[in-house]
Specification:
By secondary structure, this protein is mainly alpha-helical. The chain folds into two domains: about 30 residues, no CATH class; about 60 residues, DNA polymerase, domain 1. Helices cover about 35% and strands about 10% of the residues. Strands 1-2 form a two-stranded antiparallel ribbon. A hairpin with a 5-residue loop joins strand 1 and strand 2. The protein is elongated.
Length: about 100
Amino acid sequence: MKAVKTLRVCEKGHKYFKSSECPSCPTCNKENKPGSGFLTKLSSPARSALVHEGINTLQKLSMYTEKEILKLHGIGPASLPTMKKSLEEAGLEFKE
């Protein structure tokens, strides 16, 4: 059975359809995508989840365990390798 998509309108007035309870607007996500840094390598849901938690630098990301990051809504296992690689390139790693 296919999930029913409902019409939503974000606070900026953008209209979009969603089947989940996730309130993120696809248009706002594209507008807010950073021009550089590790966040640009992640999907919109993963990026939004980190920014919502105040994790906008690799230093802040390194203060969390992989399990803690995976608990955030919008982050799935497919995002971990990208985050790990970015951390390694900066000489950092997830907290143990």
